[in-house]
């Protein structure tokens, strides 16, 4: 029965994706929602207050703006009405704390670490969002890859002198969305997709002559639904709110994230962001339990490439 539900959910999502791409490829003569220049799902570009040519009072004959004459055009078409594909990238830094429970057969381990403690074991990381958009179609892709490491001496000489622990986390979240509210001051996207998790860990004792080294990894995929809201407070300031929820027993029991960011537009194609992100996952299998909460501040930048 659970396998049938998974197949039905997969088939439904696949059909929805095909329908969206067919609509996006429809002739331009059909009614279409206006969409601004590109923005990302996680840290969105803030093209909510794009500059428009000044409007002059009509006094019996049309008045042409000098800037428009210089550019060889008398009117400027709103950016959301074009048929072009737009691309933006948003690298970011996230500093989460970590608390919850990690469980093994017949044993659970309580975990609590501040953002500073997690950062002290940081060895490598890569995080960012890429978004491709055309008209009302939004295609964000978020990636987070982190490796933590710790090395501790052990008073077990001469058999064992130290132990090294390595923990890796790779999270990939591709989504597809529709912008169903597209106003000058507010834009709202509906998103759906999935989140792929890969957790790896290893424990190595030195010297390793006794063969007391262990390693393991875990993978699962959760379907997601979520949303993204952008609202402009001024031509330079924009607020982004987003969240998603998923799992429902297909991979994890439940997972969700919430975030809020405020952005400052330095240039039309460059926006700085700062905010807060909270990610929670509850995964359980026959031999492993992972119930974690990850709250922390986030900083990033959005660059509009096209």
Summarize this structure as a short list of keywords or feature phrases.
single chain; 306 residues; mainly beta; Lipocalin; disordered N terminus
General form: elongated
- Gyration radius, rounded: 24 Å
Strand order of the largest sheet: 1-4-5-6-7-8-9-10-11-12
CATH topology: Lipocalin
How many E strands? 12
- Show unreliable segments: 1-79
The CATH class is identified as Mainly Beta
Order of helices and strands: HHEEEHEEEEEEEEE
Q: Give the fraction of residues assigned to helices.
A: 10-25%
Number of domains: 1
CATH architecture: Beta Barrel
Integer average pLDDT: 77
Structure annotation, total helices: 3
Question: Termini separation (Å)?
Answer: 46 Å
Main beta sheet strand tally, sense and closure: 10 strands, antiparallel, barrel
Class by alpha and beta content: mainly beta
Q: Percent of residues in beta strands?
A: over 45%
Describe the overall structure.
The chain contains three helices and twelve strands. It has 306 residues and is mainly beta. It has a single domain (2-50, 90-304), classed as Lipocalin, CATH 2.40.128. The protein has a ten-stranded antiparallel beta barrel. β4 (122-134) and β5 form a beta hairpin.
Describe what is shown at a glance:
With 306 residues, this protein is mainly β. The protein has helices spanning 2-24, 66-70, 115-120; strands spanning 86-96, 98-104, 107-113, 122-134, 137-156, 160-182, 186-206, 214-232, 237-247, 254-267, 270-284, 289-304. It has a single domain, classed as Lipocalin (Beta Barrel), CATH 2.40.128.
């Amino acid at each position: 029965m659970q396998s049938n539900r998974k197949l039905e959910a997969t088939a439904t999502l696949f059909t929805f994706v095909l329908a969206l791409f067919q609509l996006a490829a429809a002739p331009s003569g059909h009614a279409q929602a206006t969409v601004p220049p590109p923005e990302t799902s996680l840290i969105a570009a803030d093209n909510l207050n794009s500059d428009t040519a000044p409007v002059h009072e009509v006094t019996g004959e049309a008045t042409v703006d000098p800037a428009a004459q210089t550019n060889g055009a008398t009117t400027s078409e709103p950016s959301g009405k074009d048929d072009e594909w737009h691309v933006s990238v948003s690298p970011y830094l996230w500093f989460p704390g970590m608390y919850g429970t990690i469980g093994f057969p017949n044993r659970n381990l309580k975990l609590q670490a501040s953002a500073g403690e997690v950062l002290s074991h940081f060895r490598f990381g890569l995080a960012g969002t890429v978004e491709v958009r055309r008209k009302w179609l939004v295609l964000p892709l978020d990636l987070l890859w982190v490796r933590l490491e710790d090395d501790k001496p052990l008073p077990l000489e001469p058999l064992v002198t130290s132990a090294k622990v390595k923990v890796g986390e790779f999270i990939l979240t591709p989504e597809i969305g529709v912008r169903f509210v597209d106003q000058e001051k507010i834009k709202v996207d509906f998103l759906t997709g999935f989140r792929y998790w890969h957790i790896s860990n290893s424990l190595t004792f030195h010297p390793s002559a006794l063969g007391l080294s262990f390693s393991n990894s875990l993978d699962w995929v959760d379907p997601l639904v979520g949303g993204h809201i952008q609202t402009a407070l001024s031509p330079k300031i924009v607020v982004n709110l987003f969240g998603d929820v998923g799992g429902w027993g297909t991979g994890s029991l439940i997972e969700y994230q919430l975030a809020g960011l405020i952005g400052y537009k330095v240039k039309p194609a460059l926006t700085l962001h700062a905010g807060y992100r909270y990610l929670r996952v509850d995964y359980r299998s026959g031999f492993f339990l992972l119930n974690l909460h990850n709250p922390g501040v986030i900083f990033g930048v959005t660059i509009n490439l096209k």
